[in-house]
Amino acid sequence: MRTHLHWIGCLIAGFGSILAVPGLLAAEKPSIAAEAQTSERQVARPWMNKSLSPVQRANLLIREMTLDEKIVMVYGVDPMPVKGYVGYVPAIPRLGIPALTLADGRAGVGNGAHDITLLPAPIAAASSWDTNLLNEFGKVLGQEQWAKGTNVELGPSIDVVRVPEWGRTFESYGEDPYFNGQMAVAEIKGIQSQGPIADANMYLTMNQESNRFKEDSIVDERTLQEIYLPPFAASIRDGHVGTFMCAYVKTNGIYSCENPQLLIDFLRKQLDFDGWVMSDWGATHSTVGSVTGGLDQQMPDAEFYGAALKAAVLRGEVSVSALDEHVRHILVPMFRHGLFDKAQPGNWSANVRSPGHDAFSRLAAEQGTILLKNERSLLPLAGNESIAVIGEAGGNDPKVEGGGSSAVVAPYKVSPEDGISKRAGSGVHVSYADGKDMVAAANVARKADVAIVFVHTDETEGDDRPNLELPGTQDQMIEAVAAANKKTIVVLDTGGPVLMPWIDQVAGVIEAWYPGQEDGNAIAAILYGDVNPSAKLPLTFPRSAAAIPTANPEQWPGVNGLSTYTEKLNVGYRWYDATGAEPLYPFGFGLSYTTFKLSHLAATPAKLAPGPGKITVTVDVTNTGKRAGAEVVEAYVAQPAKNGEPPHQLRAFAKVQLKAGETKPVSLILDERSFSIYDAASHRWIYPADTYEVLVGTSSRDLPLHTSIAVERDGKAR
Ligand code: BGC
């Protein structure tokens, strides 16, 4: 029955779209009756032959499509004829083309959907440094989207975090291009394994929210290639992502969605991308300019790609073959990901929750929670201490998610107070103060053995944070509590880094990010040591507002609409290392309740012969403490000084689980890409013959093991 209704819906939607293309010449306008007859007539559908390649199938289909049908594919219908979703391209039943149903979802199905799972923010998941976890994260998201009837998932967000105040930091993975690429690939594969096509976004230089509809990122080609492009390149190469969303901003004077350097030179010519680029919502600015600039599909409406595009084709300003190419870009991933070959059984009203997904949400929050400070091993708690939970985010208004288009309707939220009380058990006194009255908060803290203060930021798309301070009086609240109780632990529910002027006054700090629906249970598991923390920072925490890579207003938020990327390659930890600035907590850093030691670094072979090759770096990791735990081994490559690169850059990492006392060898793979740099003069990636240092350790600032690799002959990276 549901299938039947769905089909009728598609038919209606299909007709709606044809009627919705204004400007059709009268002679061409098909009557509904004629169209219905056509759709009833059996059209031969050679493109349904699954043994053909997606490109062959798309070409066969394009041959059969009328101009109107092609136009229907390249824009979203607004308002949508269906319930739910945020973007919609109607079906063309005559040809068996299914509708495209697009929904937001960086941490759960968005756009007001109910009965879904709220996962932790992507920055939290990424803090696990565990690509398996990200893959599972994508699977949960993809499964829920598919069951909601979504076949294009608008995620993940993979931009490199350049500005620590960026309002969408929580939606992204962090500040390192290689790291973001690894996370993106894992999540995209997870999403696409469940049915939906993933839409990696936002392409490109979407690094701030301030002035986001007009901002112009002034950035040199080498920086674009080495810092901002790699996550997108990895998404194509290893993630086989179906779509990208081009961003609101301009890059070097040209809007992202009509920027031929970004959309044609980089994506098509350099990276062989054969999927489609859709515009962010309202990021299309022209018809002919966008078509020739490389935009395949306008979202969410028809302003430039509906009647206007059809008219441009009829006037000869856009060739039919150019339009065909854009349509092909859309159809190829639709074929590749099976949208023509399998029924979409989901619908927006379905309850897509499951106990397994609730459990995964908790696991991801636990695995993404970073222990930053733990003086005198105050944590884990012994279990018999009385606890004061303090702060609004600790009580019945837990800060579980960020705002904007990634916001979702949480099915429930476990508050830290509830999670801790439940874990502490009935014999332990847990008190609460919201912290608005600092004297009252200090009094509650004084009476407890341990005070746990929950502070938060309200981060959202559309707004950067004005600075890196905790909003309101939260800093003072921490100081008041810390003065009353030496055993004060601060839990940060933030989407990005914050300054910690009180750091020396507190015994412990935990970055829990926006932890999703299982907030209280996850933090309790960490505090009590049921879970040994193993997450690490995917971005640097600065010591002061002045000592950040983008402290100059010309860099952020920009002057006269221009944000100039004068820091060039020195983004995130690269800048701290290049300038010698001391971070508060460095990229890659995170503590555990046990300790680890690395030894026996070896690289085999120790040279990279010409041609594609691999070097295996091995290192022994020993758990030298008394509890089981997991450690992340990080390998950075230092380029010869003459190459003009930042001091060292992450090129491989792996996470390993170890019992107390156990030693395991860990292998990390390097290849020519690990040594390559972008040569702007020849517009190529190259790896010059030379000696490169490989530094291995457990954070970007703790790299005790070194070895050298000889690259034998100049090479061009693939
Ligand atoms: C956001 C996108 C989002 C779209 C649809 C835009 O404002 O930038 O990330 O997918 O809205 O909700």
Bound molecules: beta-D-glucopyranose
Q: Give, in spatial order, the strands making up the sheet with the most strands.
A: 1-2-3-4-6-9
Q: What is the structural class?
A: alpha/beta
Radius of gyration from CA coordinates: 26 Å
Shape: globular
Relative strand content: 15-25%
- Average residue-wise pLDDT: 94
Gap between N and C termini: 51 Å
Helix content percent band:
25-40%
Sheet with most strands = 6 strands, mixed
Return residue spans where pLDDT drops below 50 for at least 5 consecutive residues: 1-40
Q: Tell how many strands the DSSP assignment holds.
A: 27
Number of helices, where a helix is a run of at least 4 consecutive DSSP H or I residues = 20
Topology:
Blueprint: H1 2-20, H2 32-40, H3 54-64, H4 67-73, E1 87-89, E2 100-104, H5 122-127, H6 131-147, E3 152-154, H7 177-192, E4 197-203, E5 216-218, H8 221-228, H9 230-237, E6 243-246, E7 250-251, E8 254-255, H10 260-270, E9 276-279, H11 288-293, H12 307-314, H13 320-336, H14 355-368, E10 370-374, E11 387-390, H15 416-424, E12 430-433, H16 438-447, E13 450-456, H17 474-484, E14 488-493, E15 508-511, H18 519-527, E16 562-564, H19 573-579, E17 596-604, E18 607-608, E19 614-623, E20 629-638, E21 649-658, E22 663-671, H20 672-675, E23 677-679, E24 684-687, E25 690-697, E26 705-711, E27 715-716
The chain binds beta-D-glucopyranose (BGC).
